[in-house]
Structures are given as C-alpha cells and as structure tokens.
Amino acid sequence: MNDTICAIATSQGVGAIAIIRVSGDEAINIVNKIFKGKDLSKVNSHTINYGKIIDPKDNKIIDEVLVSIMIAPKTFTRENVVEINTHGGIASTNKVLELLLTYGCRLAEPGEFTKRAFLNGRIDLIEAEGVMDLINAKTDAQRDLAANQVTGKVSDLINNLRDDLVQIISNINVNIDYPEYDDVDIITNELLIPKITSLKAKIINILKESKNGRIIKEGIKTTIIGRPNVGKSSLLNTLLEEDKAIVTDIAGTTRDIVEGEISINGILLNIIDTAGIRKTDDLVESIGVEKSLKTIDEADLVLFILNNNEELTKDITDLLTKIKDKNKEYLILINKSDLPTKLNINELFVDKDKIIHTSIKNNTGIDELKNKIIEMFNLNKLESQDPTYLSNSRSISILRKCLDSIEEIEKGLKENQPIDMIELDIKNIWEQLGMINGTTYEDELLDEMFSRFCLGK
Q1: Does residue 373 lie within any of the structural domains?
Q2: What's CA 88's distance to the chain center, in Å?
Q3: E strands, 169-273, where?
Q4: Is there a domain that residue 41 lies in?
C-alpha cells in the first residue's frame, strides 16, 4: 500500500485508445518524469492534459497522449491516480508501461486498484464484487444487478441488519452494566423473542430474494435429457439459432455434453445438450451417458424430451421419477408431434401443465417452451423489478450461517438461557454479517477474491 502501482487497464491489441492506470503517492511525480508537456505536479485535479510520453534516456517520443490527473482523496483508490490515454496498440502501451516500471512503479496485481479502494474505505466488499460483476455483465439485468451493488443499495441490506443487532446488543449492555436505570426497558427473554423473530424474517426474505439474484447473475442452468434420437441436439440448435450440435439419424451421435446460451427476458439460459441415455457397451458413449445423468443434479431446469411416435418404456419412467425425486424444475417435451402418436400421455404421472407438444423439425412449440420458462422462473417479474439482491455465493453462504445462528438463539431464548450468553451469540452474528460487506475480513479472503479480477482493475 505504500508503493505506487501501474497496469494497462484496457484489453491489449489494436484499438483507438489504450489506458495505463497509475495509483499511489508518487503517481504524479513518476509520470512527470516521462511526460513532455505541462508540469503535472502543478495542474488542477481532475483535468486532462495533452502532451507526449518520452524516453528520458534519449528524449525519444514514444506516443502522443492525454493524461488525466486525479489528486487524493477524491479518486477511486483514495490515492493519487493518473491515467495515460495512448493510441491503442501493443508496442506503444507496453513501452509506456515499461518506462513507468523503470522510473518507480510496481506492476499491479490483478484487482489491486479495487483492493486499494476497499482497504482505503472507498468501497465495501459487496461494492467491490459489484465492480467485477459489472465488467462481466452480459445482459441488461446483470448490469442492473451489478450497478445496485456498486452504488451501495445491496450493502444497505446488510448494514440495516447490523444496525438492528447493534440496537439489541446496546439494550442488553445497558441492562447488564447499568441495572439502576429506571427509564430503560428491562430486556428479558420474552422481550427479545419478537426482536429476534423479526430479524430472522428479514434474513429469510433476503435469502429468498437472493435466488433471483443468482438467476440474474449466473443464468438458469438447463439440461436437455432424453433417449437417443429424440431431438435433443435439434432443440439446442433451434434455441441457439445455429448448428452447434451435430444432428444425424445415427443413435449415439452426441457422446459428450455440448453447451450454449440464449437470453430470455434478459436472463441467460445456459443450455447443455447431453448424450442420449440408454444402456450401451460402447465405452465412450457410456461415459457420455454418465455425464448426462450428472447434469440433472446441477441443473435448475430439466427439459425431458420424449418421442411422440415411441411407446413409454420403464427406463423413461424411471428417469422421470429420478428427476421428480430431486425436486427439480422440469418440462416434458413430446417431440415429433407431426408423426403418428404411440405415446400415451396418461401414463405420464406428472402435472399436465408441464407437458409441451413440439415438432422441433417444424419449429412448433418453441415459443410455448420459452413462455413456460418465463412463467416458471417469474422472469417477467425479474425484468420489471429493481434487482437489489445478494448474488454472490460467498455472501449468501455467510447469511445462511447467520440464519442457523438466529435459530439457535431462538431455541436458547425459549429454554431461558442467560441473557449474557445470548448476547455473545448475537455479537457473533453481527461479526459474521460484517464479513459480507468487509467490515471484518481475513487477508486470505481478500487475496483470493481480488485475484479473480482482471489486471488493471
């Protein structure tokens, strides 16, 4: 934190503009050594200055540039920050970076600028994670979700919970330390129970809403399951509107999973086409079948395709039972509806609303499928709402642990445990919530989290 770091902040390659970012106490002085133009130490903060980058050894011009000066503390990292805008290109940007390293900078680690912003109190951990989510956003919904993290709306959810806990802890402390105060409510187990119950309800609601956040951020993991030659690969190609999977009349053509993604109402559908499920002596195909079955466990949605012109068999009903037993969201597509019917849908013991008749070859039933998915996952609601949800698995995991602790406190209160013991448990939850927004943290967590960021961010 005491040194000055630099990195190329834009993708390297041929382009109109490239940006090299510098942050630290000596940022302005170091850039001044290789800049020909105004004295950067004397210009106003948040100004853009025209000049040239030169190699001081031979006064050779490297590039014509615009240099942005931002003086601490009103910067992203709360340190002095300089951004050098060069012409895009590998040679010129690398040369400018080389000069910065030569004259006093250190190459930044991945995510180190954002890490410094966090350590200097500019942003919290939720906002930091939002920065990376904003960079990786592929849909408008993902962008909106990340933007609410960056602006602090999601942080407020956690801060409000911690404020509620502080109030409870303060009341308990006053009772314990100053029992002579007559104007303070005596905190008893009976008085604490409704406060804890209210806190529990808030956490449950945040966790419930976090499912929407995960769907927006990660998409809906969708696996296409069925016997060979029922139209799984054709469905994938139709949904993607491209020939991604090989389609033939030969059973067992698909031997490994094939993936693709589409957007429905701004939500990504991550689709996996699997090998046809059947008993086989072919080693490679059998491995593919095993992978197919595993995708059911990981899926949010299973699209189970049956042939309209094939009778129902025990292996099909067994597979359907497996899907239902795992409480998976699923839809049954009866494909090849243009062929003579041999399948008796009355033998399918499922909600008939989950059955869609399709002819993938003729592109019928596809719109109905998309509408069913929109209905099942409330995608219209997600599209219209302001997405202020927890979406990071780290944060959600911690909040679930807090919920477990709250339930233990409820149990303790009903068993009349001493109030000072209850207070310790409440303080522990307060500290756990602090790990979500970074009020409390471990160095190993920061190193691991920011290592996932791109260089220069």
Answers
A1: no
A2: 30
A3: 220-226, 258-264, 267-273
A4: yes
Any residues with CB less than 8 A from the CB of 57 and at least 6 apart, and which? none
Are 433 and 402 spatial neighbours (Cβ–Cβ below 8 Å)? yes
Task: State how far the Cα of 325 lies from the Cα of 323, in Å rounded to an integer.
Answer: 6
Of 74, 93, 119, the domain-final residue = 119
Q: Which tokens go with 425?
A: 């448990």
CA distance 129 to 413: 36
Q: Is residue 36 part of a domain?
A: yes
Statement to judge: residues 278 and 170 lie in one domain: no
Q: Are residues 240 and 319 in the same domain?
A: yes
Segment 179-189 shows an average pLDDT of 54
CA-based nearest residue to 388, from 174, 147, 161:
147
Task: Please indicate, yes or no, whether residues 159 and 107 belong to a single structural domain of this protein.
Answer: no
294-322: pLDDT as tens digits: 778 888 999 988 888 888 877 788 788 88
Coil vs helix vs strand at 53:
strand
The verdict on 271 and 345 lying in the same domain is yes
Share above pLDDT 90 across residues of the chain, in percent, rounded to a whole number:
37
Structure tokens at 180: 């002579």
Answer for the pair 437, 159: CB distance below 8 angstroms, yes or no. yes
Residues 282, 160 share a domain: no
- How far is the CA of 242 from the CAs of 263, 275, 423, in angstroms? 14, 19, 60
Residue 137 resides in a domain: no
CA separation for the pair 410, 200 (Å, rounded): 9
Are 228 and 343 part of one and the same domain?
yes
Rounded CA separation 302/332 (Å): 8
Between CA 172 and CA 332 the distance in angstroms is 56
Q: How far apart are CA 231 and CA 253, in angstroms?
A: 11
Domain identity same for 79 and 179: no
Count of structural domains, the chain: 3
Strand partners, 267: 264
Per-residue pLDDT at 169: 85
403 in helix, strand or coil?
A: helix
Give which of 297, 139, 328, 131 is closest to 216, Cα–Cα: 139
Q: 224 and 347: one domain?
A: yes
Instruction: Give the residue numbers spanning the domain of 91.
Output: 5-119
The arithmetic mean of pLDDT across residues 3-20, rounded, is 90
Residue that is written with structure tokens 């290109």 in the block:
89
